Amino acid sequence: MSDLEAVLAHVDVQAHDYVARLMEYVRQPSISAQRIGMDEAAMLACDIISERLGMEAELLPTAGFPCILARHGPIPDKPTVLIYGHYDVQPPEPYEAWLSPPFEPTIRNGRVYARGVGDNKAQHFAHILALEAWHTVHGSFPCNVILMLEGEEEVGSPNLAGFVREHRERLAADFVVISDGHLHESGQPVICFGNRGFVSFELHARTGSRDAHSGNFGGVMPNAIWSLVHLLGTMKNADGYITIAGLHDQVVPPSNRERAATDALPVDLGAVQSTLGFRAIDRPEDRPYYDRLMFHPTLTINGLHGGYEGEGSKAVIPATAFAKCDMRLVSGQTPEYVMRCVADHVHAFAPDVEFRPLQGTPPARTPIDSPYATYLIEAVRAVCGSKPLIQASLGATLPTHVFSTILGLPTFLLPFANADEANHAPNENISIDCFMSGIRISAALFAALGRSIRMTRKDPSHDPDNLRSG
Amino acid sequence: MSDLEAVLAHVDVQAHDYVARLMEYVRQPSISAQRIGMDEAAMLACDIISERLGMEAELLPTAGFPCILARHGPIPDKPTVLIYGHYDVQPPEPYEAWLSPPFEPTIRNGRVYARGVGDNKAQHFAHILALEAWHTVHGSFPCNVILMLEGEEEVGSPNLAGFVREHRERLAADFVVISDGHLHESGQPVICFGNRGFVSFELHARTGSRDAHSGNFGGVMPNAIWSLVHLLGTMKNADGYITIAGLHDQVVPPSNRERAATDALPVDLGAVQSTLGFRAIDRPEDRPYYDRLMFHPTLTINGLHGGYEGEGSKAVIPATAFAKCDMRLVSGQTPEYVMRCVADHVHAFAPDVEFRPLQGTPPARTPIDSPYATYLIEAVRAVCGSKPLIQASLGATLPTHVFSTILGLPTFLLPFANADEANHAPNENISIDCFMSGIRISAALFAALGRSIRMTRKDPSHDPDNLRSG
Ligand SMILES: [Zn+2]
Ligand SMILES: [Zn+2]
């Protein structure tokens, strides 16, 4: 029996206890947006780590809620993995939509239902339990591990970059693993090498000091909604192409390996269509499914409001209207440059419309041929019997750039949750199978790292040029 | 002293009494939209007409609130004028914005303040008092008069066309005078020969069964707001031209006389700009001011709503959005044809967007060389000392087509109210000077008709071809 086999056998025996302890962990509310239960949750996570892992967890302050940091090692010549998770959860509202209360964890049909169980408590708890199992069975870990949990992920990680800069030395690792999000919709495990970035902004049109009568002034008084309609029409055309000058200049097209990996991803458009209830896919029509989510920036109107909203008609020319928009950025794009392109465009096409920049997060992309990926792939294969899917990027945005850009580390998303975890929604859940599988994959990852020798830092996967070269 | 001079001298003597009686008349609420005071107001108007004019006013039922009809004559060989007004008023809300309660008429600075005093009670009451003055001074009227008051003008006159069709014989007249609206902004009296028509409709986009996350599905799930933005962009371009196929086909350009009259209208764009607080006039930029309100159809977005409306940003792809629109129609256009053009356009450019037609009212236009206009011009000159301005059309919409199209009669708007009457708004008012001047102009109009001999009905101004020939 190998070291890993002994750990996995122990995990199997402990399964019932692990689920019970997970339920205790998620019973504690930790709603960062509402400042509910945060201190207690942070203490609880510290205690869990410090009590049984042989590590000392520290609660480190930020300008917001504290971060938890724990470190094992260093064992010379062994690689160091930085595991990042978050102990805060989304607000549970609407309560009435929950079949069981969000902070009274309940098992139904092989799943644990509770707010935050999928996003992100069961996922980083799986890593904690894998470490505990290694420590219990062998009295030590096979590699170096840094555990880091933040308490503000659900409110946009406003202090994460500062924290990482400040504690750069204590976070010295070889690569980063983030277990958040979910398995591929097909049920297969997946490793994501990055995610899209994000900018958001508002457009405000004011064409008069008050609304006017459409009969008395129709043809004379300009209309704020028409201003926005015509401006927006210059930003993305009816064929779906973003037409803002310069916006695509930074975009790094997929490398040959990213291209090949993407083409190998299973696609079930029909399932997405029936979940979301749309007929035709968004324009442009000639793009492969995953290219839309990985390799092309988007321009989404999140909301547009102006003028009369009630029943029947009201003969009014609206003097004010606003649009809220976001864009998803792909590899190579920076929020600063994109925001400037949009600002310049608005200024050129509708100088009277006010452009209000909101937030920005850079995209992140780890080279798909990063040698550290082999450890993750090996771990998944050891537990699941087959290789994970390889996904160059998520469509959504995570604070990954903090690790990949500020720390310059290869960063991987290794999600454990089921695809229907309902994160950010009522009846959030994790399947017990997925949770247990996450513990096993984490344990196998530590084993794989333990069998290896630390690579030198001048590995090509750390070279920023590699990110750009395609 | 002429017959008219005797009447005008009597009017001067009665001025104080007339204002007091106007205040009694407007004290009675008659809010058609809220079904408040309608019966009492109709009875009151009937009594006023029947008691002192030597006419018998009848209350005639409709499917809604009744119409009041009174007729003097026929005196053979004398022309018959049909005077149309409405005894219903707009809802007075918001009450707190009124300096004196809307149904407690109050005099301040030479004006009577009350809901409905300008729109339309003082204006048709001026005609009633002019008739009363003629009857009191001379024991008879110099011409034939039909008085008609409806009770549903402020809710869109839903039963007016049916009423006019049903009582066609009793409404047999030579021409129609409607005293509603206000003097020209310059303070000069004005005669309007028509008004724009109206259609309203809604556009509803649904691109999915629920909103989706802009990261997880941006580029995949179509966006309902983008659907509307791109559709609307095909309906009117950024230069301000309506680009719906066929929409201008019916438009009758102004005749030479309409052109000349329009060019003679005084324009104070600066005053309009400072009232409404806009900088540049609406596009296209190269149109004369009154052409915009008379000779060009408009397409106004009254409201557009979809997606997130709250503070900050929400990363959502909206699955639904709607726009409420109206169009103002000009001479020659029919609501049915225009509605079909819009429906066809929506179907061609955005077959997934639902087109919901709402209301339609045809435009109305009396030939600017109608011989009946001379009576009105004469009356204004007799009282004011100068000719009125001649305006081919109002920008707004009135139910004038019922008289000009269904009855085929030349129809004129002869407004008495001050330009700042604040109709449909708090602190509605009429200046006592305007009210008294209205009584005098009405008396002078009857005098002018009394001096004339009835024209034959085959007068060219009744010929529908004349409307189209330009
Ligand atoms: Zn989350
Ligand atoms: Zn009105």
Automatic annotation (TrEMBL), chains A, B:
<dbReference type="Pfam" id="PF01546">
    <property type="entry name" value="Peptidase_M20"/>
</dbReference>
<dbReference type="InterPro" id="IPR011650">
    <property type="entry name" value="Peptidase_M20_dimer"/>
</dbReference>
<feature type="domain" description="Peptidase M20 dimerisation">
    <location>
        <begin position="194"/>
        <end position="351"/>
    </location>
</feature>
<keyword id="KW-0378">Hydrolase</keyword>
<protein>
    <submittedName>
        <fullName>M20/M25/M40 family metallo-hydrolase</fullName>
    </submittedName>
</protein>
<dbReference type="InterPro" id="IPR002933">
    <property type="entry name" value="Peptidase_M20"/>
</dbReference>
<dbReference type="GO" id="GO:0008233">
    <property type="term" value="F:peptidase activity"/>
</dbReference>
<keyword id="KW-0479">Metal-binding</keyword>
<dbReference type="Pfam" id="PF07687">
    <property type="entry name" value="M20_dimer"/>
</dbReference>
<dbReference type="GO" id="GO:0006508">
    <property type="term" value="P:proteolysis"/>
</dbReference>
<dbReference type="InterPro" id="IPR051458">
    <property type="entry name" value="Cyt/Met_Dipeptidase"/>
</dbReference>
<keyword id="KW-0645">Protease</keyword>
<dbReference type="GO" id="GO:0046872">
    <property type="term" value="F:metal ion binding"/>
</dbReference>
